[in-house]
Design a protein that fits this description.
Number of helices: 34
Shape: elongated
Strand content: 25-35%
Structural class: alpha+beta
Distance between the termini: 93 Å
Mean pLDDT: 77
Helix content: 10-25%
Number of strands: 62
């Protein structure tokens, strides 16, 4: 709730050894602070922290009274009592010094100037003024024994003496002997129900601390023996002489105490460096311990010796947080029910130079400032001797002031404040809005939940004009959209809009000063609802101010209420008030737009008295109306109307001192119709039943204002923050069959779970809680400033900052449901959250938490939860990813426990390969590396590499190559780093689930993989025999490209060194994959493969393979495949142009067939059939890419020839369809366009026109890729592929370049022959299927003669030895790259027997 922020402040004070402060106490309104030193008492103002007046003893009074020890204020701040060391109580009168001019003000703060001392009596008094105060010693009272402590009770002082008496004296100086109590006469029992008790003895000691709580009903005292007693008066008149007491159970080392009146609890600080919270058990009548306040610091396991005993404890003014300080230094802040908010022991708050120094130093006394924004502390600082470099034992006492911000929920727990992380400071507001403000500049935008990932604070400085006269800020609230905020200070209100960054204040300052907000402030739509007290009218009111209008009472709707309002809340269109008379009032809010300015109508609906259920109105910390169904009513189906009205279904939740009560509507009695003149048939609202206790130790509660059909479990749940117990959720359970009676199952279940952060907001749909954490940065303070005294050095100061934090809670709820055998409800809850981007992380957290708990348990678990969790996770498609990510983030020693339940990782790896989850399989490969031998890891990696290349996962393929290189060949047969006892692991059947895209898996980089070094020692013994004997497992199969012949053939060469063998193996894998790609005409995949696999040299490999896998047997299929892979369009001709071209050119071609002429005649009979350009398979796609417009189509014949590429396809279709069906037209899948703009006189100009204007290219990226591959093929000597690429590009210059390369280099005649035959086959193919290629093939036709001449330069039979060695190449050697082949060639022994084999001669048969 409270979080420190900024730098701590050291208050400057006059330095004197006898004037070092020892005690501080605040007045009731916390505007004045009395600081006590041994010979002086001074009065300080809260803000600014300045000294107003001081009283110093003379030598005479010092010898009589003794040293000042402690002080106590009168409730009205008109007097001050000082306790001295010589058994005296000195009374001072505190009143205004009328002798000071300027309206009796010592200081006046103005807007235009800083603090200044004004002596002019006619000066302005704008802003806050610091009054001039004088101290007058009125009386002194001498008592019989030393005074241990004192307490102000109304008009008297209770003084505890060392002789065991508690006496009472009046502020006037008289002693009330009738109210005095002697501890020897006090009867103390173990509980309040026993009639007899035991008397206190001398061993019990005397009173060291005493506090009075009228709400608890007695005195809370701490004895010098360490025991604690709650003393209650038995007299009806409150006469303390007749008292009894009850022991604090098991309390033996109490040192100090602090009473929380609002929550009715007592906190005790103990000598063991911890605190204990006690509460009254009203059933048994005992004072029992609720929880402990103990810090478990990792750096300081022995906190008692590090920090010492607890010396001081103070509750915040609103009672929501407790400050605790230790004797040796250090400070902690706890929430009301034991959640640790801040601790300065360890971390960046303290540091070690020669020894530990804690911040703050040893605290003697502390006190909270006004509204809890400051914490005043008196600490002793150890001085450092700069000359010797050693630390001395000289102590210096300083006044330290810490600044705090607090959650708006501490004082104004309205509904909208629960939906945002909203903090308020003394002069600024902190709002975590994410990207809401940047979405739109208009008000009323949809609510956003970017809050999950955004940690940015929107800091809103409060208007100085309002703050100057209304400090401090007491209430604040934010609207539902997070766009507008409102604040209330000492008087009046002000509101701010984030979209225009402007404050809106009262124009009439008189109206601002005449209104004091007493019960809170809340937003309803664009209205501000305020519970206030009208100073002029002396009445309590409810006011609603419209945001758009001026802030003036003229535009406000005012509703009178009979008593003071303590709490205000909004639920939908209902205004809820809780008043000081313990009555709850319900109003209906309705917007009225009849007037020019927006107004609101407030109608009272119901008033309920709850005084019999509330011990005191102050104890009510929250009141909420909710639509949560507490009975057995099933949720309404969409479209179904409820028989009851909305307000009749609302239930009332009330937090009474941490005890959550629910008041349900009473539907048992008949509904009484309330006859009214305006609405005679209006029904009277249903009354509330007696309350039921839902939970205890409740600090905050959250309910969703709306219910979403898809997430009923989350939006219909009640969320509770319970301090040290973490969080609790009251979850609804809806069985599937609502018709059957479910008597055995409750409709709601309370599930607790641990919260690592302090929750301030709950995002119901996102399953996330938001909170705030405080962090400190230690910076060295330079003492060269003139501020510091020359004889003292301040030790290092921590700078405190706040950070918004978040935590997932879904896995905690799923775990609790599975633990209670509610798997069906857990599955329904999880399925409604599968669309969350971090759902897979939720499953991983669930598995990891259960695994850690059960695998590290020292005791056997009779009913383990892990099998249920694994079965639950297998219901989702992310289960394979969840298992491996949990394993990789878990200690290796826990892997046997995990894989015994989830299954053999080898089986899971194969399942990933089958389902195509290659990224997940890569993660399993790391697991298998530590469980199997290196040779098995190599086999798994080879399988995965095959799949990665086949599925074009190039980055993964490169990582796998690096992984294979990292495997040490020396460890091929060695035991794995961690051998698991896998006999119990059964392959088991897995629940079928839809496949998951590989993009959903986190990529893994193998570059940092270490085989052994990252595995810590494990006690698990290796049992490889058991693992190897598992013949029933599914064995790894060879890949499709594996050469089984090479396995059987023994190597003719001796064993190579390890690095060479490893390189040969990797190169053989890469060459095998490259051969597979090139043999299937996957040229684009081959380019991507070579570009991503850094170790593969494509050009050198092509030079070696140009007569093997790089040769092209079918030019037509290769051409079609390139068009398909690179999305390159095929050229087309119009029908009329084709007919003209046929008559002039194709008739003389030796490749023209009579069938072509007959078909063309048949096609020319009916010109309307020329628009049939695509087959049935591609007709729909063609319509999408090129709509048939009649303006582009003509039935007239044309003499023009036009090439037209296929139009660009959508992402779901290929650019071209190359398959020709039997029912398709003669020209295949092409469009025919008519054009009659020009005539053709000769063939050559026509072809030039076609080549210059009509050829259309494909995508630019494809063009770059094709030209790059063309260059690579030319460099590699693969002229067949280079020729095909040049034809696809329809680049005649590239064709000529390829032919010239064949003529100028030592090109085998086999390649020349295939190039010649390939062009011939392409001409034939263009005649029958793709006429669009005819013009270009006609252009390059002359290159056929060039190829013929090249072949004629050599005899018909030619021995091709340009690239083939005499030594035969085995299948294994054919898989090697040139680098690996060089390794082989250099290591062949000269004395090895020659291998005789018949030398084949290659014959080139030219067509």
């Amino acid at each position: 709730m409270y979080f420190p922020v900024g730098w701590p402040k050291y208050i400057k004070q006059p330095y004197n050894e006898l004037r070092e402060p020892c005690h501080i106490v605040a007045s009731c309104d916390r505007m004045l602070f009395a600081i006590v030193s041994e010979e002086e008492i001074s009065i300080w103002y809260c803000k600014p922290a300045v000294q107003i007046v001081s009283y110093t003893q003379t030598e005479k009074t010092l010898s009589v009274y003794g040293k000042f020890c402690k002080a106590e204020w009168r409730p009205d701040s008109s007097a001050l009592a000082i306790v001295t060391s010589n058994c005296y109580v000195v009374l001072f009168k505190v009143d205004l010094d009328i002798s000071v001019p300027n309206h009796h003000c010592l200081y006046v703060t103005t807007e235009n100037r800083s603090q200044s001392y004004l002596n002019d009596g006619h000066s302005s008094t704008e802003g806050n003024s610091i009054p001039a105060i004088k101290l007058t010693l009125t009386k002194h009272v001498q008592l019989s024994s030393n005074i241990t402590c004192c307490l102000s009770i109304r008009e008297e002082l209770a003084i505890a003496l060392q002789n065991g008496y508690i006496t009472r004296i009046h502020w006037s100086g008289g002693e009330n002997t009738k109210a005095s109590v002697c501890l020897k006469d006090l009867s103390v029992s173990a509980d309040m129900l026993q009639s007899r008790g035991t008397k206190l003895t001398v061993e019990d000691g005397y009173v060291t601390h005493i506090e009075y709580s009228p709400i608890i009903g007695g005195y809370c005292i701490v004895l010098s023996s360490g025991k604690a007693v709650l003393m209650m008066s038995l007299s009806a008149r409150g006469n303390d002489s007749n008292c009894s007491g009850v022991w604090a159970t098991d309390m033996t080392d109490a040192v100090c105490q602090a009473v929380n009146h609002r929550y009715r609890i007592i906190s005790y600080g103990c000598a063991g460096a911890y605190g204990v919270i006690y509460s009254i058990n009203e059933v048994e009548g005992i004072l029992e311990a609720s929880h402990k306040l103990q810090v478990s610091c990792k750096n300081f396991p022995d906190m008692k010796s590090t920090v010492g005993a607890v010396t001081c404890m103070r509750w915040t003014p609103d009672g929501t947080a407790l400050a605790m300080a230790w004797k040796k230094g250090g400070f902690a802040l706890w929430s009301v029910f034991g959640s640790l908010l801040v601790c300065t022991v360890g971390g960046d708050y303290s540091f070690t130079k020669d020894y530990l120094r804690l911040f703050p130093p040893s605290v003697k006394s502390m006190e909270w400032g006004l509204e809890g924004y400051h914490l005043w502390m008196i600490g002793t600082i150890e001085n450092e001797n700069g000359d010797t470099g050693q630390y001395t034992t000289v102590d210096k006492t300083e006044i330290i002031q810490l600044q705090f911000v607090k959650s708006s929920l501490t004082v104004n727990p309205c509904m909208t404040n629960h939906e945002h992380v909203f903090l308020q400071g003394e002069d600024k507001l902190y709002l975590n809005t994410g990207d809401i403000t940047s979405k739109s500049s208009q008000y009323g935008g949809s609510e956003s939940h970017i809050l999950v990932g955004s940690k940015q604070w929107q800091i809103i400085p409060i208007s100085h004009s309002y703050l100057a006269s209304n400090w401090p800020i007491r209430y604040s609230c934010v609207d539902k959209a997070g766009q507008c905020v409102a604040v209330a200070g000492k008087t009046g209100i002000a509101h701010y809009a984030l979209f225009n960054r402007k404050w809106k204040l009262f124009g009439n300052e008189t109206q601002e000063r005449d209104m004091v907000v007493s019960g809170g402030i809340a937003w309803w739509k664009d209205f501000i609802c305020v519970a206030c007290y009208n100073i002029i009218g002396h009445r309590d009111e409810i006011r609603c101010y419209p945001r758009e209008s001026k802030l003036d009472n003229t535009f406000a709707n005012i509703q009178k209420v009979p008593s003071q309002v303590l709490l205000i809340n909004i639920f939908k269109d209902t205004l809820l008030l809780f008043c000081v008379d313990s009555h709850v009032m319900i109003f209906n809010l309705e917007r009225s737009n009849t007037q020019s300015n927006a107004s609101i109508e407030i109608t009272k609906v119901q008033e309920v008295g709850l005084s019999s259920y509330i011990p005191h109105p102050v104890c009510v910390t929250g009141v909420v109306l909710t639509s949560l169904r507490m009975d057995a009513t099933a949720p309404l189906v969409a479209g179904q109307k409820s028989s009851q009205s909305t307000k009749d279904t609302d239930n009332l939740l009330m937090n009474v001192a941490g005890k959550l009560l629910v008041f349900q509507r009473d539907r048992s009695g008949p509904q009484i119709k309330q006859r009214e003149k305006s609405s005679p048939h209006k029904q009277k609202p249903l009354p509330f039943t007696s309350p039921s206790v839902v939970a205890t130790n409740v600090e905050n509660l959250w309910t969703s204002p709306k219910s979403i059909a898809g997430k009923v479990q989350l939006t219909e749940a009640l969320w509770l923050s319970c301090g040290w117990q973490g969080m609790k959720v009251w979850l609804p359970l809806y069985p599937k069959n609502e018709t059957q009676a479910q008597n055995f199952m409750s409709r709601r279940i309370m599930l607790p779970f641990r919260a690592d952060i302090y929750p301030l907001a709950v995002l119901f749909e996102e399953a996330v809680i938001l909170g705030v954490a405080s962090d400190a940065s230690m910076l060295r303070y330079s003492n060269s400033s003139s501020y510091c005294h020359t004889t003292r050095n301040l030790h290092d100061l921590p700078y405190c900052s706040i950070e918004r934090t978040s935590q997932l809670y879904l896995h905690h709820i799923l775990k609790q449901l599975l633990k209670r055998n509610l798997g069906v409800q857990a599955l329904e809850l999880a399925r409604c959250c599968t669309e969350l981007s971090y759902f897979s992380h939720v499953l991983e957290l669930l598995l990891h938490e259960v695994l850690e708990a059960e695998a590290t348990s020292k005791e056997p678990i009779p009913d383990p939860l892990l099998p249920r969790v694994v079965a639950f996770i297998q219901e989702f498609p992310e289960y394979l990813q969840t298992f491996v990510q949990c394993a990789r983030k878990t200690e290796v020693a826990l892997w046997p426990h995990l894989f015994t339940t989830v299954g053999n990782p080898k089986d899971l790896f194969e399942e990933c390969l089958i389902s195509g989850r290659l990224e997940t399989a890569a993660s399993y490969l790391i697991i298998l590396q530590n469980l199997e031998k290196s040779i098995a890891s190599r086999q798994h990696a080879t399988l995965l590499l095959d799949s990665a290349v086949e599925n074009k996962h190039w980055e993964l393929a490169q990582d796998l190559v690096r992984f294979l290189k990292a495997i040490d060949p020396n460890d091929a047969d060695a035991s794995p780093p961690l051998a698991l006892y896998m006999a119990k692991v059964h392959s088991g059947s897995y629940i079928s689930s839809p496949t998951m895209n590989s993009t959903d898996c986190d990529p893994f980089t193998f570059s940092s993989v270490s085989n052994v070094s990252r595995i810590r020692s494990s006690s698990v013994t290796a049992d490889t025999a058991v693992r190897d004997s598992q013949t029933d497992k599914i064995k790894l199969h060879h890949t499709k490209s594996d050469n089984h012949m090479s396995v059987k053939r023994p190597s003719p060469r001796p064993v190579q060194n390890n690095s060479a063998t490893d390189q040969v193996y990797i190169d053989s894998l890469l060459c095998r994959h490259a051969r597979k790609l090139l043999s299937t005409n996957r040229l684009q995949d081959l380019g991507n493969f070579a570009a991503n696999i850094k170790d593969f040299q494509l050009v050198a490999w092509l030079k070696k393979e140009r007569l093997r896998c790089a040769k092209v047997e079918d030019f037509v299929s290769a051409l079609r495949d390139l068009h398909h892979q690179f999305e390159w369009p095929l050229p087309v001709l119009s029908l009329s142009a084709f007919q003209k071209l046929q008559r002039k050119a194709f008739s003389s071609s030796s490749l023209a067939s009579t069938t072509l002429e007959e078909d063309m005649k048949n096609l020319s009979i009916n010109t309307s059939n020329t628009l049939m350009s695509c087959n049935n398979d591609d007709k729909d796609t063609r319509k999408k890419s090129l709509p048939m417009n009649n303006s582009f189509i003509s039935n007239d014949t044309s003499d023009d020839v036009m090439l037209k590429p296929q139009m660009a396809k959508t992402d779901d279709s290929s650019v071209t369809t190359l398959e020709v069906s039997d029912s398709s037209s003669l020209l295949g899948d092409f469009d025919f366009l008519m054009d009659s703009n020009s005539s053709i006189d000769s063939l050559t100009p026509e072809l030039e026109l076609l080549s210059q204007e009509i050829i259309s290219k494909g995508p630019e990226q494809s063009d770059l890729e094709l030209r790059y591959m063309l260059q690579v093929m030319l460099e590699g000597g693969c002229l067949e592929w280079a020729l095909i690429i040049a034809i696809v590009l329809r680049d005649s210059s590239a064709v000529i370049r390829t032919i010239n390369t064949a003529s100028m280099t030592d090109t085998p005649l086999e390649i020349v022959a295939r190039m010649r035959e390939g062009i011939s086959y392409l001409e034939l193919w263009s005649d029958t299927e793709c006429v669009g290629y005819k013009p270009f093939l006609h252009v390059i036709r002359g290159q056929i003669h060039v190829l013929t001449k090249i072949s004629e330069q050599a005899p018909p039979t030619l021995k091709l030895n340009a690239d083939l060695d005499d030594t035969p190449i085995s299948v294994e050697e054919g898989n090697l790259s040139p680098g690996a082949m060089s390794i082989h060639s250099t290591e062949i022994h000269g004395d090895s027997p020659p291998i005789l084999e018949h030398q084949k001669q290659n014959e080139c048969v030219l067509s």
